[in-house]
TrEMBL record:
GO terms for molecular function: hydro-lyase activity. It comes from Archaeoglobus fulgidus. One of its GO terms (biological process) is fatty acid metabolic process. This is Enoyl-CoA hydratase domain-containing protein 3, mitochondrial. Keywords: Fatty acid metabolism, Lipid metabolism, Transit peptide. It comes from the Archaea. InterPro entries: ClpP/crotonase-like_dom_sf, Enoyl-CoA_hydra/iso, Enoyl-CoA_hydra_C, Mitochondrial_ECH-domain.
Length: 254
């Protein structure tokens, strides 16, 4: 892969955006590689959690503007459709995805953070959706950011284009944890490994359930949950987990 690196540490996969000279701008080629890699990881099922990080000093500065300037809208749409497919691959994946954020995460880079299931940020990290400043509103990033943070804060981010700090990102729900810069990798891996000890089948069914019920009415969601928990109670993973609980031992997941 030209624009990505990938390694596995036990049951955790680590994808590194590898265009540090552009602050890991999300080019069409990078996004194609990213979708292909995510779908390969999903199919192989060798890891249970995946971390996305950036090489160098930034997480991602967003789309490569050289691929937008003076291009026909059909060409630009191809870029954004590929971004759509990469984000969808994260959502479709059985594994939870964790963004590990250092430096800046702006525009589509901020969108990628919001699209991941969880995020850990270095204390010095900064987040923004600054398209308004260059005459092209951050339409696609705001679609995800506004679903991660409160509506008023998302509107402010989109219409001022100003940075928010990691602590603000934590306060408004864009990230799960803020840690000292030098402990970013250590703390992200701790979170990843705390999830990776569980059955991938359970993680997959839980992730699919979580996003499907998220925007349902309360009792519609509860009815769906009741159906789901009843169905999955008969799986081998559930039987093994409950037996292990009564036998006071660790469950033996696949």
């Amino acid at each position: 892969m030209k624009n990505l690196k990938y390694q596995e540490r036990g049951k955790v996969g680590i994808i590194s955006l590898n265009r540090p000279e552009t602050r890991n701008a999300l080019s069409l080629e990078l996004l194609q590689e990213l979708e292909d890699l995510i779908r390969k990881i999903s199919e192989e099922r060798l890891v249970r959690v995946v971390v996305i990080r950036g090489e160098g000093r930034a997480f991602s500065s967003g789309h490569d503007l050289k691929e937008i300037l003076d291009r026909h809208p059909i060409e630009v749409e191809k870029l954004f459709n590929q971004c759509y497919r990469a984000m969808l691959a994260i959502r479709d994946a059985p594994q939870p995805y964790i963004a590990m954020v250092q430096g800046v995460a702006t525009a589509a880079g901020c969108q990628l953070v919001a699209a991941c299931d969880m995020a850990v940020a270095a204390k010095s990290a900064l987040f923004a959706t600054p398209g308004v400043k260059i005459g092209l509103f951050c339409y696609t990033p705001i679609a995800f950011v506004s679903r991660a943070v409160g509506r008023k804060k998302a509107f402010e981010m989109g219409f001022t284009g100003e940075f928010i700090t990691a602590d603000e990102a934590l306060q408004f729900g864009l990230v799960n944890r803020v840690v000292e810069d030098e402990k970013l990798e250590e703390e992200t891996m701790k979170l990843a490994e705390s999830v990776a000890r569980y059955s991938l089948n359970v993680l997959e069914s839980g992730k699919r359930f979580f996003y499907k019920q998220l925007f349902m009415e309360d009792f519609q969601a509860l009815a769906f949950a009741t159906e789901s928990i009843s169905l999955y109670s008969s799986t081998e993973d559930a039987k093994e987990g409950i037996r292990a609980f009564f036998e006071k031992r660790e469950p033996m997941w696949e």
